[in-house]
Amino acid sequence: MSTTTRPLRKDAARHREQLLAAAVRVFDEQGLDASVTEIARVAGVGIGTLYRRFPTKQALIDTLVHEVLGAIIQMARDAARSPEGTGLERFLEATGAFQAEHAGCLPRLWNTDHEMVKLARHLIATLLLDAKEHGRVRHDLTSTDLTLAMFSLNGVLEATLPIAPDAWRRHLDVLIAGMRPADSDLPHRALSPARLDKVLAARSTTVR
Amino acid sequence: MSTTTRPLRKDAARHREQLLAAAVRVFDEQGLDASVTEIARVAGVGIGTLYRRFPTKQALIDTLVHEVLGAIIQMARDAARSPEGTGLERFLEATGAFQAEHAGCLPRLWNTDHEMVKLARHLIATLLLDAKEHGRVRHDLTSTDLTLAMFSLNGVLEATLPIAPDAWRRHLDVLIAGMRPADSDLPHRALSPARLDKVLAARSTTVR
Amino acid sequence: MSTTTRPLRKDAARHREQLLAAAVRVFDEQGLDASVTEIARVAGVGIGTLYRRFPTKQALIDTLVHEVLGAIIQMARDAARSPEGTGLERFLEATGAFQAEHAGCLPRLWNTDHEMVKLARHLIATLLLDAKEHGRVRHDLTSTDLTLAMFSLNGVLEATLPIAPDAWRRHLDVLIAGMRPADSDLPHRALSPARLDKVLAARSTTVR
Amino acid sequence: MSTTTRPLRKDAARHREQLLAAAVRVFDEQGLDASVTEIARVAGVGIGTLYRRFPTKQALIDTLVHEVLGAIIQMARDAARSPEGTGLERFLEATGAFQAEHAGCLPRLWNTDHEMVKLARHLIATLLLDAKEHGRVRHDLTSTDLTLAMFSLNGVLEATLPIAPDAWRRHLDVLIAGMRPADSDLPHRALSPARLDKVLAARSTTVR
DNA sequence: GATGAATGAGATTTCATTCAT
DNA sequence: AATGAATGAAATCTCATTCAT
Predict the structure, then answer these.
(1) Structural contact between residues C177 and D184, judged by C-beta atoms closer than 8 angstroms
(2) A148 near B156, Cβ under 8 Å?
(3) What is the 3-state secondary structure (H, E, C) of chain D?
(4) d(Cα C67, Cα C73) in Å, to the nearest integer?
(5) Which of A203, B52, B73, B147 is 20 to 30 Å from the Cα of A149, by its Cα?
(6) So what's the pLDDT on residue C39?
């Protein structure tokens, strides 16, 4: 879980976790514009401590994204063991639940860390293939459609989370229903993976 | 100095339009964090003039949202004249296209102005009823599901717009496919209108 | 005197002068590490006003240097009209007096603005030639020796100015005595102009 | 844990030297604004250790100045053994060389430690007297003139050291030439020793 | 009515110093 | 004795808003 080379001192590690938890809470409530001072206050540490752990605000956000991505990758791996091609659905449900609980706020998730994002997308593509082979999703569904579905869930989560923390489940129902095999193909062409790469590259989780 | 009752009315109106157009452009490029000074610069007027027209930055944003909502209401009315219950689909496509073209940046659209939002939601409910009656959408689809679909499109648009300006169409394909009549109902219960009201009330189009 | 293209509004121009005067005073007392907030306070304006006039602290310092250099160039021109090769001595005396009065603090003067520095050095070289032709200075004295003399005066001024504001004059006496024609050449080779250029380039009037 | 009365005394002494050496290097490269953390890092010790040896940053700088002054006093003593009144010239050359090599950065040397400064000035006065008696310098040259010459060398060194490490020698040539016996006295009156004391008292080697 | 100069609270970040481990 | 994590004051700079011109 930790990204540093040497193990942190006990209190330092605790502060690190407090800061990340505070960042999630504060960003969740106020968006990425929230001030680092506020985060330090909520974490109960001095602002200097925040900057010892995370040398810039951006580094703090990057760490958050990194941790969320790691969790999502783990979910994809877990889902890959589901039977009968149900892994994809389980994965979508699990990531939705995770983001709803831990990181609903992170507006721009799918970028920043190229390696991890690529791994995640590879795992998702595998889940998609499995689902297709078991006839659980339509044949013209592509891997890029699933990324769009992630953006989509993000939009719903961002809008509803504080008030209706389960609304995303209903929306996911509609999305999954739309992915089921059907008589006619989807009218528009899917986004090409190359173009999606550009999209991800363009939107960094950047402040300012 | 002028002898007419409303001197410079024409200038004032022109400035207003210039400012709104500049705001759309600048917010689109830089997000809502863009400075009002920049907007005034792009509009070619002094920032004092901006503040004469719009007493706060928030008021400027509200006006923008108001105009977008007006356009969306008009689209709903136009769509209501579509035959065979196709109005709902036409409406979804039209609003997507409009937001893609004019307001891709406005992150938080569906709130602020209660009266107009209520009217929009009423019109959308009517389109939904019509679509159901013609068997074009499933019976367990609710009006709140459509609002979630709007949030969803917002998420996709925000993520993809600059690089892949048509990606939202493909996503809408999946959404509409998920709305079609099906053998089994959606697993989760729909969001109640009352709860949705709270969601909308909570999220203001607010900066800072 | 003003460096902006359009004439400033009356109060703006006054504030600009107040800020420059305050900067001289504060830098003089506390060195270039003095805070901009302090300068604004001494000038009697808000800190935002300072930043409207000078977009960075560095810009403020650059302006100060620019103005000092302009004055020095003017002195060189005035000195060029002195009779009998006395221009060089008059120039050294005049710049010493000026720096003692207006800019004793500016630690690193002889750089930043390449064009002006080159002009100044050219004018000084001319003064040197004239002095040599009238037999007022030794033949092995070079233009780079005069720049070193400037650094030298800077060192003396920086050390003595607040307490002994005329000490530099006595030191200049010694320097000028050392420049007078003599039987034997100076033991060490003079700094080459190319090397001096590098020295000037290296030491920018930079903070941080 | 050790059984000796002063455990780790050897370590402590080594740390002290490492820290002083690191301070010279770092201050030389970055100026007195360099952070104490950086000095500790270069010294290879924790910053807690630095603060055990030197209770404040100022104390560290003072120690450095103290050491430099000690070396200079030693040079004055060595120079006193030079024949034919050449001690003064040797001393000036030796201090220049020493500062160029070891303490180019220390901007404000001639103060802080009253006792040592007084001793240094006394030794210098003796060298001056010797030089006068042997007819190597003019009769109207005073001890305070020599301190000004030190300031002067400081200015030249500070400006040129990194790029032209020998430029100060040429400047010293001019200074010494100016000190030689001449037909006419220096035009301005010398700085009185009392006034010079005030100058030295005023300018502390202070940071911030 | 229009302008843009002035304002100052607040943002991010640095760093000398303290103190728990 | 040594370490380096923690601290928070202070620095530079931005920007929504006000108001003199």
Answers:
(1) no
(2) yes
(3) CCCCCCCCHHHHHHHHHHHHHHHHHHHHHHCCCCCHHHHHHHHCCCHHHHHHHCCCHHHHHHHHHHHHHHHHHHHHHHHCCCCCCCHHHHHHHHHHHHHHHHCCCCCCCCCCCHHHHHHHHHHHHHHHHHHHHCCCCCCCCCHHHHHHHHHHHHHHHHHHCCCCCCHHHHHHHHHHHHHCCCCCCCCCCCCCHHHHHHHHHHCCCCCC
(4) 10
(5) B73
(6) 95
Mean pLDDT of D174-187: 96
Give per-residue pLDDT as tens, B133-157.
999 999 999 999 999 999 999 889 8
* Closest-approach nucleotide to residue D41, Cα vs C1': F4
Residue B141 DSSP label: -
Task: Enter the tokens of residue A65.
Answer: 């994204």
> Rounded to whole angstroms, how far apart are CA atoms A64 and A72?
12
Chain C residue numbers with beta carbons less than 8 Å from the beta carbon of D138 are 177
Nearest in space to B121 (alpha carbons), one of B12, B199, B35: B199
Contact A96, A168 (CB under 8 A): yes
* Closest C-alpha to D96, from D138, D142, D163, D149: D149
* Mean predicted confidence (pLDDT) in D98-115: 67
Checking if the pLDDT of B177 tops 60, the result is yes
* Residue B192 identity (one-letter amino acid): S
Q: Do D176 and C174 lie within an 8 Å CB cutoff?
A: no
Q: What whole-number distance in Å separates Cα of residue D154 and Cα of residue D159?
A: 8
**Phi (first) and psi of residue D161, to 5 degrees:** -50, -50
List the D41 CA – F14 C1' distance (angstroms).
Answer: 34
Nearest-angstrom CA–CA distance, A194 and A200: 10
Q: What is the DSSP string of A7-66?
A: PPPHHHHHHHHHHHHHHHHHHHHH-TTS-HHHHHHHHTS-HHHHHHHSSSHHHHHHHHHH
User: Which amino acid belongs to residue D9?
Assistant: R
pLDDT in tens, B91-113: 999 999 988 887 655 655 555 55
Token pair recorded at residue C40? 């604004």
Burial label for B65, CB within 10 Å (0-12, 13-18, 19+), is buried
Is C95:C72 a contact under the CB 8 Å cutoff?
A: yes
Please tell me the distance from the alpha carbon of residue D162 to that of residue D155, in angstroms, as a whole number: 13
Residue A4 DSSP SS3: coil
| Res C113: pLDDT | 58
Alpha helices in chain C (DSSP H): 10-30, 36-43, 47-53, 57-79, 87-102, 114-133, 143-160, 167-179, 193-202
**In which band, very low, low, confident or very high, does the pLDDT at D23 lie, cut at 50, 70 and 90?**
very high
Distance B30 CA to F14 C1' (A): 15
Q: Which domains does chain A have, with CATH numbers?
A: 8-55 (1.10.10.60), 65-206 (no CATH)
Count other C-beta atoms under 10 Å from residue A92's C-beta.
Answer: 22
D203–C151 CB contact, under 8 Å: no
Q: Which among B153, B158, B186 is the nearest to A177, CB-wise?
A: B186
Residue B148 CA to residue B161 CA, distance in Å, equals 19
CA distances from B61 to A196, C208, D140 (A): 30, 39, 79
Segment of A143-147, B29-33, D5-9, D116-120 carrying the highest mean pLDDT = A143-147
Considering only CA atoms, which residue is closest to the C1' of nucleotide F5? A12
Q: In 10 A of CB C163, how many CB atoms?
A: 17
Contact A174 B203 (CB under 8 A): no
List chains adjacent to chain D, taking adjacency as at least 3 C-beta pairs closer than 8 Å.
C
HSE value, Cβ hemisphere, 13 Å, CA-based, for A39: 32
User: Which bases on strand E have an atom closer than 7 Å to a protein beta carbon?
Assistant: 1-21
User: What is the crossing angle of helices C114-133 and C87-102, to 10°?
Assistant: 140
Q: Say what percent of chain A tops pLDDT 90.
A: 56
